[in-house]
Hints:
The complex is a heterodimer of chains A (321) and B (535). Chain A is an all-alpha fold and 321 residues long. Chain A has helices at residues 2-33, 38-43, 49-59, 65-77, 91-126, 131-144, 148-162, 178-212, 215-222, 227-264, 270-279, 283-311. Chain A starts with a helix and ends in a 10-residue tail after the last helix. Chain B has helices at 2-24, 69-78, 132-145, 176-180, 190-196, 247-255, 268-275, 304-312, 316-323, 356-365, 382-399, 410-418, 436-443, 460-471, 475-490, and strands at 49-54, 83-85, 92-94, 97-102, 108-113, 154-161, 164-169, 210-216, 220-225, 238-243, 261-262, 280-285, 288-294, 329-331, 373-379, 402-408, 424-430, 495-507, 511-512, 532-533. In chain B, strands 1, 8, 9, 10, 11, 12, 13, 14, 15, 16, 17 and 18 form a 12-stranded mixed beta sheet that branches. Chain B has a 4-stranded antiparallel beta sheet with strand order 4-5-7-6, covered by helices on one side. A two-stranded antiparallel ribbon of chain B has the order 2-3. Chain B is globular, with a radius of gyration of 26 Å.
Amino acid sequence: MIGIVLKTFVRRLWQLIPILLIVATIIFVITRMIPGDPAVTMLGPQASAEAVQNLREELGLDQNIFVQYAIYLKDVVQGDFGTSYAYNEPVTTLIWKRFPNTVLLSLFALVLALLIGIPVGVVSATRQYSIFDYVSMVLALVGVSMPIFWLGLMLVLVFSVNLGWLPSLGMGSLAKGLGDVFRHLLLPGLCIATIPMATFARITRASMLEVVNQEYIKALRARGIREYLVIWKHGLKNALPPIITVIGLQVSYLLAGAILTETIFSWPGMGRLIYDAIENRDYLLIQGTVLFVAFIYVMINLFVDIVYIIVNPKISYAKQG
Amino acid sequence: MKKRFWLALCILMLMGVHLLLAQGNGEHANTETQPPKGSSISRGDRGNVLTIALSASPKNLDPIKYTGVYEGNIIRNVADTVVRYNKDLSAIVPSLATEWSVSDDGTVYTFKLRDDVYFQPGTYQDGKKMTAADVKFSLERSAEKSAMNRLGMLKSVEIVNDYEIKCHLDHPNAAFLTVLTDAGNVIVSPEDAKGWGESFGAHLVGTGAFSLSEFKPDQEAILNRFDHYWGPKPNLDGAIFKFITDAAQMTNALRSGEIDVATDLGGENVKVVSDDPNLVLDAVPGLHVAYVYMNLMHGPTADKRVREAIIKAIDINALIKGVYPYNEAQRAYLPLPPGSWGYDASLEKLIPSYDPEGAKSLLKDAGYPDGFHIDVYVANKPARVKMCTILQAYLKKNLNVDLEIKTAEWGTFSEVASSGKAGMYAMSWTWYPDPFFFLNKMFHSSEIGALGNGQGFNNPEVDMLLDKALTVPDLESRKVLYQKALKLIVSEYPRIDYSNEKVIYGFNPSVKGFVVTADNSIDLVSPEVNVYLED
């Protein structure tokens, strides 16, 4: 078992290198294809041509595109993503400042989605066709279909503007205590969690329905094992593989959802950083952040696959191909 | 039975969503004149600290690196300039300099400096007295290193004594004093600027009423009162500038009491704030012109008759009502805002009024009886795109001209617009009250290829007048020259100047003494202003 896990891990790590190189190249080409000159964008409408030219030289944008690409690749291989034009700070520093904020928000949303989504799915499955089942599945359908942007604005209008219960922007400060950060987390967290929560509920219900009608569950009941153990221990364990796959997919989605949500709630994370970088034509920052997010995606997928092997030993990636 | 249950459930759900929407659509019934009970906005536990939202995220507070009005508004409260504009922007008044004189040839400016000015304590000095050497350092630093080349005309600064300097220019430039009022030319602590080097932008130290305590990019800048400030003692204990890039979000934050001042309001949000009995709205005409350029080098619009026809084919008064339903702008006529001292209202009559028939015959004379196809490039801003849509309808109806709207975000737009590749392009311009920053930047042939003059306006006589206006030091003579230039410019029909947008802020009513200025600059404390919060 451990052998299979290790083999999978090492092999996938090797695959990571060409993937990241391809992503690095694609993102380099795309950033250079977007019309608009970073120097003009940064200096704004009133800059003189001379000032723009000076900045271009300073940023190395006057060099041949292939030279720029070669320098970029050489730096990336050494783990140097360069310095952001707009922030005047190393890209890696900016990422390390922002990424924890996005992780905090995404993890909070994930925990929220799991804690509510999975139990609702299990209860729905065990009480199929009950009022609870109907109501929760309709709500889940609404949840899955909810546009994040609209939901975010609605949450702010209801909980911040009309009721005045929760702050609508920023992430608070630890100086004021954990409670302050938690209050700031609630609205954006709920906003991102809605779709995964609904997805978890639906997939858990479907997966549990398959499981609870199987022979071994009946056998467990016949042996007099308590119902809650039958469902929550034996049933859920066997229903987990598809749920884990979906969790993996949803974690990637959480990162994407963070971009929109961070913009709505002024949450200082990676999402806003990428958004701003594109706005500012901040080439090196776009390249660095996108490459980093690609790396995180690949790692999450790898992690999900490994958990999958552990939960369901019948699957062996090592034997494939 | 089951079907009925489903139906009932769906209806219930829809009603719930509808209720939520009704609660949250931000509209008060117009009949409401009294604030709802207990609904005055709570400011939380912020005490005597003012929270202002800026509509963009400042990246760097180093005066030589800043590019936007947003950074300028923070810098301005932390550091001072040598001279400044008074609050209605009608005159340049003393700040760190008490008086000044100009040599006869216009190339040497002598400033007498205050002798009671202290820097805020920084990491590399402990609150020392400001002298001429610090002013020399700051101005020469800006002249050499400013990304925007703000002090390009300054050759050197000579120290006469501890409290007197002479600024030597490489050629006479009457806009020099105006440029000195820019936040990019504030006086900074040389020790801290050298000590911090590249990261001085996050640790700005100046002589202003507030010191920068913390700068968190994309979040906020926190300022604390500086007790050794040379001017009036600030009423506020501090100020927080929060960066909220989404206008609806900013309005919501104002309504929920999370911020005290919302800046740059426009569109729907103006209505939301003005309808809210718990908020105050303040609007002043800005130093701003929104316009549509026509290409003077290529295509049909290179013909003056075509340009005149296009202007005549548009009912600008109706267009304004459509683009600014909440009265966020006034009708413009000239490429200079009425707030500039160079404005000449008598020239307004030179702008053709709405005349569809006249427009048709002009276009026929120009050889386009059946109209033509032309692109208009526009940055992706709701007000600009809306304006282009109305423009499109007028040109189609009155001239059979097919206007194709091409929206692009700023980076793309600016590249196309400055290269003269567009047939028409819609944008706006805002700067100082000095006409130099409008007319020279948008109509001098030396600016062809820059965004200001992407249309390729090239008139030697206008160039001559604009150049001359920079060399005469007195305001009245300059005014005459600019007005002559302005007359020549508008008689070429180079563009459709349609609006002067207002600078619109929303306030929590407890904010007092705040002055909204036409140039969108925020001064919390100055000899004329001292903002405070009422309990």
